[in-house]
């Protein structure tokens, strides 16, 4: 799981162009939205694209997305349980 | 009713040359590369990296030249933002098309949002919280010229008094290769194909820091040469100038024999004895390159000198102290623009 968390942090930094953020700056249990990263709804869409492209997971239910993107740790748990690639 | 005068209050560039600088007048950067990217400024001096993270290169460069002009003029919210860009955020457009080619279900919203041409002008207004008139012209090689014409007409009608007018273009390797095949860039002897961003503030009020006066703008089609002569005559009359009062003609010669011959024909027809200037060997060729001609001419008039690097060596006449510069822009021997800039 630690490896997946690190991979997700790196993926988030890359797709959201968080140039001045390192994986160590992201607390895996901290809220992704409404926290220090300053992410917004467009970023949520980018993360949905990331889940699809990298892990083959299609998120279609918005309420499901809220729970999945709570933190990097919740993302990692969801990915590990639902990934198709 | 008397018409208002219009002035170029400030003009800034990002291009092959040193960023946000007039160093090109004394130490021009010359390159023999076929395709050249713009020299990057220190973006952090202007934009918080988190605010810029979704912006493509074109928007970031446009924002930097715009913010510099707004700072220099002290005008926070111009009455209008008028943008000229022929191909817009090309890098993001290509990425969007590549993603569509892969799968239509997983498209990055960022690339999608920034692909439309008018995203540049919109981004400038959103970032500066300016809610006035905002329009983008994507009209090939006259995109910037039409943006100036829009500002010119609205100022004459009294609808606006200040306008941030810009020309912005970026280039990718893919697009360059296509344009090269079409003979538009990358041919032997041609100037480099290049990216650029130029923002300028037009103002109906003259102030101490204004660079020059924008004394005339005209557009047309080269098929109607007599109309072009009439437009120049009207422009000179309105500026109280004779043909001998034009210090120099600045053309968009780019090393393409057909293109350059067209300019030679126009100048021979309009002002056969005037010294000739060129700028694309310094700033490169792209669809909005005419903006760099206006930028260069405005700074020459402000400084009261024309650097030797701008002179077209095909004509022996030299201009030392310019008082009026006529800019001629055309491409494919079809649409053209004439702009007259005069010393204040």
The CATH topology of the largest domain in chain B: Peroxisomal Thiolase, Chain A, domain 1
Uncertain parts of chain B:
none
Largest sheet of chain B: 10 strands, mixed
Using DSSP, what is the number of strands of chain A?
0
Q: Round the Cα radius of gyration of chain A to an integer and report it.
A: 12 Å
Question: How confident is the prediction overall: mean pLDDT of chain A?
Answer: 90
Biggest protein-protein contact in the assembly = A-B, 14 and 12 residues
Radius of gyration of chain B, in angstroms, nearest whole number: 19 Å
- Number of domains as seen in the coordinates of chain B: 2
Short recap of the structure:
Chain A is mostly helical.
Description:
- The complex is a heterodimer of chains A (85) and B (344).
- Chain A has helices at 2-15, 41-55, 62-68, 72-82.
- Chain A is globular, with a radius of gyration of 12 Å.
- Chain A has 4 helices and no strands.
- In chain A, 55% of the residues lie in helices and 0% in strands.
- In chain B, the strands form 2 sheets. A 10-stranded mixed sheet of chain B has the order 4-3-5-7-1-8-12-11-9-10, with helices on both faces.
- Chain B has helices at residues 49-52, 57-73, 90-102, 109-114, 119-128, 143-156, 173-181, 225-238, 257-270, 280-283, 290-303; strands at 7-14, 35-36, 80-84, 133-137, 162-169, 193-194, 196-203, 212-221, 248-251, 276-278, 324-330, 335-342.
- Chain B has 2 domains: 6-203, Peroxisomal Thiolase, Chain A, domain 1; 215-342, 3-Layer(aba) Sandwich (Peroxisomal Thiolase, Chain A, domain 1), CATH 3.40.47.10.
- By secondary structure, chain B is of the alpha/beta class.
- Classes of the chains: A mainly alpha (85), B alpha/beta (344).
- At the A-B interface, helix 2 of A face helix 4 of B.
């Amino acid at each position: 799981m630690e490896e997946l968390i690190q991979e997700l942090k790196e993926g988030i930094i890359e797709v959201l162009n968080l140039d001045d953020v390192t994986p160590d700056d992201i607390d895996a249990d901290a809220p992704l939205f409404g926290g220090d990263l300053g992410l917004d709804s467009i970023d949520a869409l980018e993360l949905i694209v990331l889940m699809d492209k990298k892990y083959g997971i299609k998120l279609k239910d918005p309420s499901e997305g809220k729970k999945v993107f709570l933190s990097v740790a919740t993302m990692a748990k969801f990915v590990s349980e639902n990934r198709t690639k | 009713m008397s018409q208002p005068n219009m002035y170029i209050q400030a003009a800034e560039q990002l291009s092959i040359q040193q960023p946000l600088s007039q160093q090109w007048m004394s130490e021009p950067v010359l390159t023999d590369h076929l395709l050249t990217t713009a020299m990057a400024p220190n973006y952090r001096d202007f934009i918080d990296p988190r605010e810029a993270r979704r912006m493509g290169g074109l928007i970031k460069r446009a924002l930097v030249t715009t913010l510099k002009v707004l700072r220099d003029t002290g005008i926070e919210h111009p009455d209008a933002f008028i943008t000229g860009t022929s191909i817009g955020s090309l890098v993001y457009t290509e990425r969007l098309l590549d993603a569509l080619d892969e799968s239509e279900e997983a498209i990055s919203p960022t690339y999608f949002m920034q692909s439309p041409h008018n995203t540049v002008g919109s981004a400038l207004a959103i970032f500066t919280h300016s809610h006035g008139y905002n329009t983008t012209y994507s009209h090939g090689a006259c995109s910037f010229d039409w943006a100036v014409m829009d500002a010119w007409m609205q100022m004459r009608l009294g609808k606006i008094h200040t306008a941030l007018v810009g020309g912005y273009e970026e280039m990718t390797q893919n697009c360059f290769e296509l344009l090269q095949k079409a003979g538009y860039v990358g041919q032997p002897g041609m100037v480099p194909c290049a990216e650029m961003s130029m923002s300028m503030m037009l103002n109906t009020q003259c102030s101490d820091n204004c660079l020059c006066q924008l004394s005339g703008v005209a557009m047309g089609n080269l098929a109607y040469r007599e109309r072009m002569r009439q437009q120049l005559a009207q422009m000179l009359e309105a500026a109280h100038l004779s043909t001998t009062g034009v210090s120099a003609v600045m053309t968009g010669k780019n090393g393409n024999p057909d293109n350059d011959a067209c300019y030679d024909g126009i100048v021979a027809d309009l002002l056969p004895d005037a010294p000739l200037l060129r700028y694309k060997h310094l700033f490169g060729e792209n669809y909005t390159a005419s903006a760099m001609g206006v930028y260069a001419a405005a700074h020459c008039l402000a400084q009261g000198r024309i650097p030797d690097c701008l002179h077209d060596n095909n004509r022996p006449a030299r201009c030392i102290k310019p008082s009026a510069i006529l800019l001629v822009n055309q491409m494919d021997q079809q649409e053209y623009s004439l702009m007259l800039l005069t010393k204040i």
